[in-house]
Write a structure and sequence with these properties.
By secondary structure, the protein is α+β, with helices and mostly antiparallel strands. The protein is built from five helices and 16 strands. The protein has helices at about 10-20, 30-40, 130-140, 150-160, 245-255; strands spanning about 1-5, 25, 50-60, 70, 95-100, 105-115, 120-125, 130, 145, 170-180, 190, 215-220, 225-235, 240, 245, 260. The strands form three sheets. Strands 1, 2, 3, 4, 5, 6, 7 and 16 form an eight-stranded mixed sheet that branches. Strand 12 and strand 13 (about 225-235) form a beta hairpin. The longest helix is centred in the N-terminal third of the chain and has 12 residues, at about 30-40. It is elongated and about 65 Å long. This is Galactose-specific C-type lectin. Keywords: Lectin, Signal. Pfam families: Lectin_C.
Length: about 260
């Protein structure tokens, strides 16, 4: 899952722009999604500790009082409304923003708002690709495939994936940035070119069982004793993937009118 915080737009233009990127206005399907979203927004240069507001993909435009996710047409199950919301103020509030205004006791809670209001917005991209296309797509966004340099970051990555729509408790696999394309058996991080010091290989991995197993996936298949362990795999296989945005990349992205965490 990729989350992007972009420039001001009304809700309709936000939907249109996310679609243009091949993404969608963000879906917040769980408490984990909500927490992850708030944490990611706080790392962008659009975060303001006094007041931060942005669109997500829910609305009741089709049926007053019944909120659905625009991208999927599914009913909103998890929600994080502030007390007395949604209130459809003035009978024009049909789109959902997330609002953080501590002085008014808004703590990343949801508010229904006139869809024509201007807000930042969050796009979400979820798809599968081979390792090369995944790296290319992340780079296109001013990001890189995610690197995992220590156990704490690895745990954070697992929790983020668990809170996303790519997670399946029975079977989850996704690309990370490590590979040994340059030198067989020596794994490096694609973005930085540094040697992979921290690893979490499954027993008897990497095995290079074919000459093409040069890229690294994370695999969680409990029935087969895979518990978020690493596996070397043919880079041409299709997998979900995770992009990572750093603050330095975020500054570069400003030039492209795109604000990323």
């Amino acid at each position: 899952m990729v989350l992007l915080l972009l420039l001001f737009a009304n809700w309709f233009k936000a939907v249109e722009y996310c679609n243009y990127l091949g993404a969608r206005l963000a879906i917040v399907a769980s408490y984990e999604n909500q927490t992850e979203l708030a944490e990611m927004v706080q790392q962008t240069d659009k975060y303001n500790s006094i007041s931060t507001e942005f669109w997500i993909g829910a609305s009741d435009l089709a049926d007053e009082g019944h909120f659905i996710w625009h991208a999927t047409g599914t009913r909103v199950q998890y929600s994080n409304w502030k007390v007395l919301q949604p209130d459809n103020g003035g009978n024009v509030e049909h789109c959902v923003e997330v609002r953080y205004i501590p002085s008014e006791r808004w703590d990343w809670q949801w508010n229904d708002l006139d869809c024509k209001k201007m807000r930042y917005f969050v796009c979400e991209y979820t798809d599968v690709a081979n390792w090369f296309k995944a790296a290319e797509y992340c780079h296109h966004l001013g990001a890189e495939l995610v690197t995992v340099t220590n156990a704490q970051k690895y745990n954070e990555l697992k929790e983020a994936v668990k809170g996303s729509e790519i997670y399946n408790s029975a079977h989850t696999e996704f690309w990370i940035a490590a590979n040994d394309l340059a030198e067989e058996g020596h794994f490096y991080w694609h973005g930085s070119g540094s040697r992979a010091q921290f690893t979490n290989w499954m027993k008897q991995q990497p095995d290079g069982s074919s000459v093409d197993e040069n890229c690294v996936e994370v695999r969680n298949i409990p029935a087969y004793q895979w518990h978020w362990a690493w596996n070397d795999l043919d880079c041409r296989k299709m997998r979900y993937f995770v992009c990572e945005f750093t603050k330095s990349v975020n500054q570069i992205s400003t030039v492209r009118k795109m604000y990323c965490q």
